[in-house]
Amino acid sequence: MSVEVKVPPVGESITEVFIGEWLKSEGQAVKVDENLVELESDKATFEVPSPSAGVIESILKQPGDSANVGEVIATINENAEAPSDDQPKPDSSPEPAKTADQPTSSDSEASQDSGNGEPRVMPAAQRLLAENQVSASSVQATGPGGRILKEDVQRYLSEPKRSTPPTPTHSMTSPNEPFDPSRQKETVRMTPMRRSIAERLVESQRTAALLTTFNDVDMSKVMKMRNEYKDTFQKKYGMKLGFMSFFVKAAVDALNAIPQLNAQIEGDQIIYHNYCDIGVAIGGGKGLVVPVLRNAERMSFADIEQSINNFAERAKSNKIELKELQGGTFTISNGGVYGSLLSTPIINPPQSGVLGMHRIEQRPVAVDGQVVIRPMMYLALTYDHRIVDGREAVTFLKRIKDTIEEPARMLLEV
């Protein structure tokens, strides 16, 4: 009996996903709940488990293909058994070779048959070869029956002097001009996440009245407090004390004082939130993601640092769940970790504000009539002018500045 593997529901507004990497290939045995394939939505990457035990009978969608929610992407034969390792391999079979119009069992196990002189290539390896435009004949196969595995391709790419430039699909010179290998262009399909980021940023600029206000903050006291307690903090909680927790705490205080930055427009109504769900922008394996710290107003410094560290680790392997990326009321983005001195961040709609942090650098400033050198950071607040007036935006940013420059206010809540 064949069991269908369908694209599961992944979110209220998501109807289409893209096929990522198949973790199993046709002809392989699978167990119940064993992961079969990675799917990519416009917000996250997730794995689909096997609904039944058996052998993968057919794979209907290849990496890069799109599929709708509920669509069948593979079938599993519950009654079949996978061939054991001690059975004769197709290459060593005494049966005469079949002609090209006679399908063999190996056609369902590899994306490329050896009948054309190329070694058999497993689907995951085939995708990696295509992405790097490497010929399968260049890779040494170590899989059963001379198959090329994903690990074989990775090993080939990691070897020295393997950075062969991709073969250009289109020349930037006219047909009558000689080919110039230094002038190439490459066409790559946008990932669902990158497409979503592009659409939302354009939507934000098209639908909101965006304005950015700036200020700078003296980081001396926060840095002193952090250096004084970082060892004790790490010993107690098992993690480093970063700057982001200070800014999350400062943002919560400022949002309580200026609730317009924690609100959103819906039609002709303004929705105010009595909680602070703060999104923290994190660079992930496939692009920028903004997981949300739920009820940040209830979180301690340790809770914030632990959550951010957890998000960062899972973002590297695209393991953040879709629900963790939805529903933020305000966002903080730290471009300083990449060396940014100043920027104008863009709001994540339907939110009304985003705080941009930047790198800390030693700059001369005037203090009590004297020029001194202090660790300074520029702050940027982009806000939706439809709901937030300039006075409120400046007051909000000034309150964050005051809180960071006098961090004891976070404890006293003044």
How do you describe this structure in short?
This protein has helices at about 125-130, 150-160, 190-205, 220-235, 245-255, 300-315, 390-405, 410; strands spanning about 1-5, 15-20, 30, 35-40, 45-50, 55-60, 65-70, 70-75, 170, 185, 210-220, 265, 270, 280, 280-285, 285-290, 290-295, 330-335, 355, 360-365, 370-385. By secondary structure, it is of the alpha+beta class.
- The ordered string of helix (H) and strand (E) elements is EEEEEEEEHHEEHEHHEEEEEEHEEEEHH
User: How does the overall form come out from the CA principal axes?
Assistant: elongated
In CATH, what is the homologous superfamily of the largest domain?
Chloramphenicol acetyltransferase-like domain
| Tally of strands | 21
Give the helix level as a range of percent. 25-40%
Beta-strand proportion: 25-35%
CATH class of the largest domain: Alpha Beta
N- to C-terminal separation?
A: 68 Å
Can you count the helices?
Answer: 8
How many domains, as an integer? 3
Mean pLDDT across every amino acid position: 83
**Class per helix and strand makeup:** alpha+beta
Q: What is the CA-based Rg, rounded?
A: 27 Å
CATH topology category name of the largest domain: Chloramphenicol Acetyltransferase
User: How is the biggest beta sheet arranged?
Assistant: 7 strands, mixed
Unreliable residue stretches:
85-115, 162-172
CATH architecture of the largest domain: 2-Layer Sandwich
